[in-house]
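Why show two proteins at once? Because comparison is the fastest way to build intuition. When a single record is shown, students tend to memorize it. When two are placed side by side, the eye starts asking what differs. So, the first record is below.
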Amino acid sequence: MEMQGRIIRFLCILTILIFVFMNITNEFDPLREGIILDGAWKIALEDSISFKEKEFNDSNWKEEEFIYKNVLIKKEVEKLDKTIWVRKNVVIPQELLSQDLMLYIPRLPNYHKVYFNGFLIGKTISSPEDLFNDWNRKYGYFIPKNLIQYGKENTISIKTYSSYEYGPSKSLTIERAKDVLKRINIYSSSYTYMYLTNMIILLGMSAYFYFIFTRMKKKKYSYFATLCFVTAIYYIDYFVSTLPIPYIVFKKIVLSCMFFVPILGVLFLREFLSLPIYKAQKINIYIRIMIIALGVILFKDTISYYKFRRYYMIIFTLDYMYIFFMVLWDYFKNHTKKKWIYPLLLIILLMCGHDICNALRGIFPPLGFHLNIYALMIFIGIVALDLAKEYIDIFTKAGKDGLTGLFTQSYFKNELIEIVKDKDIIKKPFSLMMLDIDKFKTFNDNYGHLIGDEVLKIVSRIIKETSPENAIVTRYGGEEFGIILKGYDEKESLVLGEKIRKNIEEFRLKIDENSSTNTTISIGITTFDPKRILIHSEMLIEEADKALYYSKENGRNKVTHHREMRYKR
């Protein structure tokens, strides 16, 4: 079991490190020697999507920056389904005469042809009619030296197609051929391996936590396994370059996975933090699933797909805002003990919000950074560590206490969480009892630890024999015990508590041939009423503890119910 924990920790840390290292390698590779083609380009449009050669008058050309633009979002409807010509004059200095040069184009969507001083130097393999939009490729085109006019203006022309977007993700450059080839080779291999590796790791995590779900039967493990699975499928979009299925079918699958992430995120978080899923949250989830299904059925091509994605992003944004404020609400209302997760969740939601804003505005992420990828992997990695640790702890520490044979504290807490979440059980009252041996330290000091251990064994046996068969009897820690009593209301739990107290008080422990002694126990009880709203299971432990301490402060050797304690005060 410890080996499983180490493997999970290693995979989580490896996943995050791969993302950080690969993205730095890909996006911060500096220009060593060459020319950056930023600033204004001259741009002209053809009225059809034909790629036949065509001359333009000077009046047809307009100056604007040649960068990534979203046609639908920017409302540049004249560029929708058009052929776009871009042209720029550049002076190549004499200092580069000895160098073999290449034109480097980072992530240019759709089909394109590239000309240098009127001569074709490269084009994409796919045709304008091919719907596949390969964002996962960078291009490098060799510029023959006999075409270059050193020290004079040279004209670079690019003919590209616009569907709902056009333009490169970053500025084009003219660089040494060896630098461009090295960059493209590193990018092609590392980018593919990065997302492929993370997809494999996520699928492995999904299988592992689904296996845990089959053993533990806790919904949070199944939700987390499914979250890992849909995230893995979503990442295919970042490295795939060929498809065995139609492109539009592939985009439907990826889109569905993307939009199921927040749905599964809400379901998982509520279970992970032991919080109830409210009716409004369920209704929201059902509506979201219906909208996703409707959109997947309706859009037939890339334009209708992108329009649906655009409008759905508004709902997507509202959903993230809802999750954001839900996290804040739960934090300030102290609804869970896992306080460490809230700062992490807020940072992750802000990172995702950054990318959502860019998507809504049609802006390509600066330097290619998709912060939501980091957010998802950091969240999945840290939560996987916590879930794996919890699972391992249950099976390595939470079995039976070695001295008394009773269940241990972690098993007790996990069972209580499951009981609180079980709707069939909480339709009926159930009680929680906390017990503490009176003056046990003094008893240990007077008679020694061996006699003290004997007392713990005897008290454990009396509690176990007196309790009903379905009770979960636990050595909570030291001389403290806990009992979960399913189906016991306030009156029944008080009767049982008094019976346990009396049986322990009446038992005589033989110290030696001439002497014997007895011990007493203080008991605190709380009862869960089905009509009551319970934020988290540990509230019951806190109430039973308060009742226990009330018993100890008021003479010991007595039974107190939490409700009775409130009335007495």
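Second record. Ask yourself what differs from the first in the token line.
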Amino acid sequence: MIGSLGWQELLIILVILALLFGAGRVSSLGGALGKGIREFRKESTAKDDVVNADNEADEEKENS
């Protein structure tokens, strides 16, 4: 859904948000969103590492 929005639509949405909440509040919301995305990616990568380690351990058990 977001992929179908052009830059003009996104600009209009940002202007409306700035008018409603103020520029300072919008920037703090953006920072919080960025922090949340970074945390999600970090945890997702950590989970993938654990799954890969478990798969390698299972393969070693099967081969021995």
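One difference worth noting in the second protein: The chain is about 90% helix and 0% strand.
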